[in-house]
């Protein structure tokens, strides 16, 4: 089997579950969807189309922060997935430095590129960008909150980036909910405490990674992250994700040590990346992004 491309057959993709997830998800809205599509098209054209400015940049979609699962349609309460967004924000800076154009798909209110060391001060929230998206020359920021928004945006993005072939990359550092309350079975109004203890049944979020690889952007270079708190199962789970979802690389990390060390799992072996403890301010993202950029170059070379 080809070590980089991976010519294994995909596991059975749950198309029916995926369709019902998207069909029942609250829509982003026609206006918002059109605006995002236009921005993406402009961004990709500006950075990728050589006729625009003479240079062709690779484009990476970095996802960052955790998704929420609302418990009520008029949401007062929700379940959250842990992620400060530090990994995504830091990695975005290094991808930009390496010459990539970055679409930063991030959870509202989490860590932003070039603002990583700002203190965690609620006052700073007042200065948060309030527009739906935020675009500069080589950085396009798109915010999400819920699992519904995140997956719809990821699909939109993947379909827009499909035309870039192997020059597109997905770096999926966001912490994505595994379980959710389907919209149609969700309480409309605030759940009342007078009714006694609350029983909630959560459905499984259908796995979108195999469909991203197979249908949405089949030529893109795809890196997913695997987070565990039990080190004993971390590598086994990361290996499973690599094979089951046909990822090019899976970055395995443990919650407690995630800022010190990650293990990059590939079909040709594992690579441990550690933060350089002798260097003040060094992080694990710099060597991680360097390795990934090198592997992406090899991948592009193998496709041409
Ligand atoms: C990660 O594993 C990220 O590295 C962290 C980064 C969320 C731990 P921080 O944002 O932390 O710097 O505070 N992200 C992926 C987590 C995830 O939900 N992975 C899924 C899984 O493990 C697969 S897509 O099942």
TrEMBL record:
UniProt entry keywords in alphabetical sequence: Ligase
- The DNA/pantothenate metabolism flavoprotein C-terminal domain sits at 161-262
**Which Gene Ontology terms describe the biological processes this protein takes part in?**
coenzyme A biosynthetic process
The highest taxon in the source lineage is Eukaryota
Among the GO molecular function terms of this UniProt record, one is:
ligase activity
PANTHER family (UniProt xref): CORNICHON-RELATED
Family statement: Belongs to the PPC synthetase family.
Q: What name does UniProt use for this protein?
A: Phosphopantothenate--cysteine ligase 2
Instruction: Kindly list the organism's lineage.
Output: Eukaryota, Viridiplantae, Streptophyta, Embryophyta, Tracheophyta
